[in-house]
Structures are given as C-alpha cells and as structure tokens.
C-alpha cells in the first residue's frame, strides 16, 4: 500500500528498532504448536523510557491489560520492555493476573530490570488456560537474541490471523536533533475500537515527558485506530503503548509547543500507516476501504459519519460484490449519531479506475453501472462524503465483508 508523504518526515526501515537504543526479538516458545510460527516477542530499551498507553474499553479486559495499567501507575509512566505472546489472550482465566505477573518477573530477571518496568500483552483465543512454563523455557533465548535487526521477528510473534507483517517508522528533527519513531501492529479481525485497537507497540528516541506522551497518544488514537472497523467487535485485549527513551538528545518536550507539534505529527504518520495496514489485512478482505467525510461543522461529526459508513455491514458487502449501491452509504450516513442536513450530502466512489458521482444534495444521480463496476473492481476503494456544512474533515478505514471472513471465524479456535 502506498504511504502518504509528509514534508519534514522520511520513512525508514526498522519498525520498533528504528529508534536509538531499542532492540527486539521473537521466537516460538511452545504456546503455538506450530513451531514455524513465533508466539513470543520482546522489545527492550537500554535506558529507561517515559511511557504511555491506551486500552480497550470492553468491560472484559485481558489480564495483561490490568497488569500493565498497574505497572505504569506504580512507576509513574516508566518502562523498559514489552513482552507479548500470541495464540492465547490470557483473558477470563482465574489465574490470569498471576500468570501475567509471573511473565513480567521472568522477563525482568533475564533483562536485569524490575517487573514493574515491563509492559505485558497477549493476543489469541479467549478463555484458554495459559501456562507459565513456555515463557520460562523460551525467555533466555528470547533475551539473548535481542538485536536491532530483530524487529521483524517481534512482529511475527504477535500475528494471529494476520497475513502480512505490519510496521512503520519515520525520521524527523526536533530542535536540530535527528529523531526516530517506529511501531509494529497486529490485527485482522475482532476490530471495532473504542479507545484503542489490536496490539500496537511504538518506540521513539525523542525526549518527551510521560504526561505529554499520553496526551499525544490519546489525541492521535482518536483519528487513527479509533477510526478503523473490520467487523464491529471490540477486542478484550486491545492496547497501544508508546515508549520514549530520549536518546535523540532533544530538549525534553513538557508542554504543547512547536516541538510537541512535530512529535505529534510523527506519531500520527506512523499510527495512520499502521491503521491502514490493519484495514487492508482485515480477515478475508479483498478490498481496502477509506471513507473521507469533509464539510463537517466539527471534527467529531466528521469522525462519526466516516466511521458509520465504514462500519456498515451492508455497505461492506456491496463493496465485496462491486455493487455501486449508494443507498447503503446514505443509510449509514443517516443513522450516524450526528447533526447535519442530509439534503446537502454529496457522495463519490473513487479508485484507480476513476470516479463515480452517485449522490448530490441527498439525491441520486445517473451514472454508468458498467463504469461503476470497473471502479469498484479495484482493490482500493475511496468513498468521499461532503456534508457541505463546515470546514472539518476526518477519515475512517476498513475492508469489505467476504465469504472468507465467515470461514475464518467459524473455525477460529482450531
């Protein structure tokens, strides 16, 4: 997928290891019986990091989330490592917190840090018991194998139904100092975020306080991950964490100044790219969908309308079938929880094959069904909605709903 260019920011390789001082690794420790698939990942900073995180708002939360929240509270937002496993979500288990804490202790002992400095996460099947033994057996080799080149092994360790690795990183300058910010993500299904989505780990060598890091993350998640919908289900283990070790040497960002704006834009670029990767790799997906709502009176209205379109199962099915059934788009716009005049709404469908204008001022327009079918036959479809009611704009991302989605989730536990 083509990544949007931003002045002053250069895309680089390395994911969570693009920033100075970070290493990573991943391997199979035995949680996943398929020895060819990594199931345990580690990200480590040689120096202490200011950290921030956002979590799922599902009332059912995985034990690792509860443990991570407590750790960051105890340390006042300081962390040095992320330990994460796939295949088992460690959710709804009577001993889940005990297991998550023990995993942090094993990690800390191997790295020579405290358990409270560890962010822990899990993804996979809910309600399955999780033994500590695989972690104990694999931790030494995992830590010994840490390297700047290990970012891809770490990415592979968090994949479940994902079909491709997802990572992004940028280089930028703050106060004349070169900084890097990069991340890795997983997620393919059970995605309809409320505060966060999937598992996402971001690192940077920029110097920024924990409070400002939390502020930036909470603001950017609202217009990136929270504008993503694959299937309408909010996971129990969703988490986005950011660690900043300050090794770039810029003056620490402690307020909303110009440096904060530069950092926040870097965070947006990486998080937006990973959000789009998640959308394109939705379970069973054959088409990437992006809805832009413009002409809104405020940002929240634009977000609400764009998400309503992307979240519509009927619309997703129409895109799978290449059917320019624009009435489904108007329907989704109409039940969005926002105030606007539906009789002002314009809608266009766009792809590499061209553009089809299907609605003007709330009413349908004549268009060639044959040409529309060609437009919708592409694997990236862009929907534009103009409310003609203001200057604000927002985007939402998702994918089509296919037969394969049902197949994947009808057989998920096996």
List low-pLDDT spans: none
- Cα separation of the termini: 30 Å
Helix content: 25-40%
Secondary-structure element series: EEEHEHEHHEEEHEEHEHHHEEEHEEH
The CATH architecture of the largest domain can be named as 4-Layer Sandwich
Number of strands: 16
Could you name the CATH class of the largest domain?
Alpha Beta
What is the general shape? globular
Q: Strand fraction band?
A: 25-35%
Number of domains: 2
Biggest sheet architecture: 9 strands, mixed
**CATH homologous superfamily of the largest domain - what is it?**
L-amino peptidase D-ALA esterase/amidase
Instruction: List the total number of helices.
Output: 11
The helix/strand class is: alpha+beta
| Rg for CA atoms | 22 Å
CATH topology (level 3) name of the largest domain: L-amino peptidase D-ALA esterase/amidase
List the helices and strands and how they pair.
Blueprint: E1 10-11, E2 22-27, E3 40-55, H1 63-74, E4 78-85, H2 96-111, E5 118-122, H3 133-144, H4 151-157, E6 166-174, E7 177-186, E8 199-204, H5 210-223, E9 228-229, E10 239-244, H6 258-280, E11 288-296, H7 299-310, H8 313-320, H9 326-334, E12 346-351, E13 354-360, E14 363-364, H10 369-376, E15 380-386, E16 392-399, H11 403-410
Helix pairs in contact: 1-2, 2-3, 5-6, 7-9
Explain the overall architecture.
There is one protein chain. The chain is an alpha+beta fold. The chain folds into two domains: 10-279, L-amino peptidase D-ALA esterase/amidase; 288-410, Ubiquitin-like (UB roll) (Roll). 31% of the residues lie in helices and 26% in strands. The chain is built from eleven helices and 16 strands. The strands form two sheets. Strands 1, 2, 3, 4, 5, 6, 7, 8 and 10 form a nine-stranded mixed β-sheet that branches. Strands 9-16-11-15-12-13-14 form a seven-stranded mixed β-sheet, sandwiched between helices. Helix 1 (63-74) packs across helix 2 (96-111), helix 2 (96-111) packs parallel to helix 3 (133-144) and helix 7 crosses helix 9. It is globular and about 70 Å long. It starts with 9 loop residues before the first strand and ends with a helix. The model has no long low-confidence stretch (mean pLDDT 92).
